[in-house]
Structures are given as C-alpha cells and as structure tokens.
Write a structure and sequence with these properties.
single chain; about 190 residues; mainly alpha
Length: about 190
C-alpha cells in the first residue's frame, strides 16, 4: 500500500485483490486506492478523499495512517516485490485455513476427501517456481551481440562483474586501481 500511495504504478500489482490483505483496513484502503487511481493521481490525500466519499476514512485511520503507510516504504520502485509478498502471505493464510478446516472435519469424524482436495489446491499455489531470470538457449547466446567493454574482457559496460577473494588479498586496492585507470582513461594491466 505504501508503494501505491507514493504514486507507484497500479499495473505493477496485477493479480492483487482486496481479499489478499489480512488487515480489513488495508483491504478497504486498497480498494480506495484503485478507485482513486481511476479518477487521477494517487497519494495519501486523494486516497483519504476517496475513503471519505466511501464513509470509511475514520475506520481506516484517516490521513495520519495513510501518511504512515506511505512512509513505510523507501520507494515505489519495488512495488511488484511488495505485491508478491502480500500474495504469498494470502496463499499461506488460505493454506492454513484449509488445514484447520480439514483438522476439524477429521476430529468430527466427517469425510475428509473434499477437504483434502481443497488443501491440495491451496498448496498447489506454492508449486509455481518464481524465476527472476530466463536461461538462454545456445542458439540465443550465439545470436546475441558481443558485449561492449569498459575494460576489455574484464569489465562489461552493461551487466554485472564481481571481484572476489579471501580477506586481506587486496580486492579493495585492486578495485580502486581499476576505477582510477577508468577515470583517467588509461589501460589497466594491458587492457
């Protein structure tokens, strides 16, 4: 919610529903935030106004609580990750509720086959692996352009490079020497 209140893109929370929030106030605030987004800009003031029109502003803590929510996150940039965390917690709650219902049915001597099916369905929500990167095929790798280098064959202009070694082996000195060579535009160990 904090990321949305900071003006984050509501499209970044695709699939998130008001029912995914455990706190009833957050469910209402989420609905008000989506409604406010449809009317224009989103910030604590516009969402508070939307809550006021719904007659829910006091129930949800008013502008003070909305401001607190907006200050609870450093940036809206991580909104997709925040939304995924809310969805994961909602799935866990659903799984726990199904397990509790199954236990009650078993203790009461009722047929648990339907409950087992619901429990398995709730558990299957965790079977989806979350991939941050897609592996490329050999053909896709061969078709990619050659990388541009800041330091030939060592430091790419785009991407990630790592400098590692045991403590005290001179990594910091090496990194500073490399940075100085780049800043001065000179070669570094012949590169």
């Amino acid at each position: 919610l904090g990321g949305l209140l900071l003006g984050g893109d509501a499209g970044a929370v695709n699939g998130l529903t008001a029912g995914d929030f455990s706190d009833p106030r957050h469910s209402i605030i989420y609905g008000a935030t989506i409604a406010a987004k449809q009317r224009g800009a989103v910030d604590p003031i516009t969402v508070c106004e939307q809550l006021r029109m719904m007659g829910k502003d006091e129930e949800c803590g008013g502008i003070a609580y909305l401001t607190e929510l907006s200050q609870s996150v450093p940036t809206a940039r991580h909104l997709p990750s925040y939304a995924e965390a809310v969805r994961q917690r909602a799935r866990r709650r659903a799984l726990a509720l199904e397990a509790q219902a199954l236990a009650r049915d078993a203790e009461a001597g009722r047929d648990v086959s339907v409950g087992m099916g619901r429990l398995q369905a709730a558990a299957s929500a965790f079977d989806e692996p979350r991939r941050r990167f897609r592996l490329l095929t050999a053909r896709e790798l061969a078709d990619r352009p050659l990388p541009a280098w800041v330091v030939r064959d060592l430091l790419p202009s785009r991407g990630l490079a790592a400098l590692y070694g045991p403590p005290g082996s001179g990594k910091s000195f090496l990194a500073l020497d490399l940075a100085t060579a780049i800043a001065e535009g000179r070669t570094w160990f012949g590169r």
